[in-house]
Design brief:
This protein has helices at residues 3-11, 30-35, 50-54, 59-71, 123-161, 167-193, 206-214, 239-253, 302-311, and strands spanning 16-20, 25-28, 75-82, 88-97, 108-115, 202-205, 223-226, 231-235, 259-267, 270-277, 316-319, 328-333, 338-340. By secondary structure, the protein is of the alpha+beta class. A 5-stranded antiparallel beta sheet has the order 2-1-5-4-3. Helix 5 (123-161) packs antiparallel against helix 6, helix 7 packs across helix 8 and helix 8 (239-253) runs antiparallel to helix 9 (302-311).
């Protein structure tokens, strides 16, 4: 974030929060920390998942920030809110792109708000929002604590293997450790899917979706080439998870991988989006069950979830690569569910 914009944001009297396309905190000011009812700490450190930092606040805060990252357009709204040590109030909320963060869709979005004096929110709407916000906060806290305990458990299982010589016992420990990793992955998935019921399908820029997914993976120096143009797709916002799965699976499992390429083309009116890599490819023996729930070395759910997410708007997925020639996943978006967007 440019120094000038940091100075501007720091000078704002109200709460300010900045997130990136990876849905991670880049900046918060003291007023924002106070609004969420806390003190500056680990939850405000740059790089912290935005949903953890913003969990105590109304969901509209996250919705508006992510809308800016998808569309590049300013979002304004009135938000009902109850301060922990105050009372009910109404906020005039504004989310906007931070200029100077690259061409095309913004890489950073900022949110700020001002209290509307003398206005009291409707009781029913306020109670519903308070209940949902509190539920999200509790889920975030519990999820965090469970993951911490799982990390400790897996660590002790790994530590125990160094003291066990019996091969059968070591085999059991390895299976227990693998089960722990599966549980970790499933709990992490709940972070993305807890808002499925309130996140309706919408038009989204494909390049922004890919960039958002890429920002959440340590690519370990692997080159990622994406040609999405100005194409927009009508899909669940969870489509980001589909591309996140493609990239993460390639990075984690394709040994010797140097490049991941994302491209698109038109076939019979349908849009075909391809994600391919130059790794060893997927074994023929695994292809039939590739998109089944629980498939994979670690009982993964990623590709099964990808298939389910795409099916919400009628899109389909298949693997079209060859063993020894790299993996190639193709998403077929039906006509009417994609369009060419504005180049600006």
């Amino acid at each position: 974030m440019d120094g000038i914009w940091r100075d501007i944001l720091e000078a704002m009297p109200g709460p300010v929060c900045v997130v990136d396309t990876g849905r991670r905190i880049r900046y918060v000011n003291p007023s924002m920390v106070a609004l969420r009812g806390g003190t500056a700490g680990v939850e405000t450190v740059p790089g912290t998942p935005a949903d953890e930092m913003l969990a105590p606040l109304p969901y509209e805060v996250q919705r508006s920030l992510y809308s800016v990252l998808r569309t590049g357009k300013v979002v304004t709204a009135r938000i009902s809110w109850i301060e922990r040590e105050g009372g009910p109030l109404v906020l005039e909320s504004t989310a906007f792109p931070v200029p100077g963060t690259g061409g095309g869709m913004p890489e950073l979005a900022a949110w700020t708000a001002a209290v509307i004096p003398g206005e009291v929110p409707a009781g029913e709407a306020l109670a519903m929002e308070a209940s949902r916000s509190k539920g999200k906060e509790l889920l975030s806290v519990v999820r965090h604590d469970i993951l911490n305990q799982l990390t400790i458990l897996i660590g002790f299982l790994q530590f125990s293997e160094d003291f066990i010589e019996d091969s059968r016992v070591r085999e059991f420990l390895a299976k227990e450790e693998a089960a722990g990793h599966v549980i970790q992955a499933l709990i992490e998935f709940t972070r993305d899917f807890q808002d499925l019921a309130v996140e309706d399908p919408r038009w989204m820029r494909l390049d922004a979706v890919i960039r958002s997914a890429q920002g959440r993976v340590d690519t370990k120096g692997i080159e990622i080439v994406a040609d999405a143009g100005t194409t927009e797709v009508y899909a669940s916002p969870l489509i980001r998870h589909v591309f996140l799965t493609f990239i993460k699976n390639a990075v984690d499992h394709a040994h010797g991988l140097t490049r991941i390429t994302l491209s698109q083309g038109v076939d019979g009116g349908d849009l075909v989006i391809a994600c391919e890599d130059d790794g060893p490819g997927i074994p023929e023996s695994e292809r039939k069950t590739l998109f089944d729930r629980g498939h994979g070395r670690n009982r993964g759910y990623g590709l099964w979830l990808a298939k389910e997410i795409l099916s919400i708007t009628g899109a389909k997925i298949r693997e079209a690569g060859k063993e020894g020639g790299g993996a190639r996943f193709e998403i077929r978006v039906p006509a009417g569910m994609w369009r060419e967007g504005d180049a600006s």
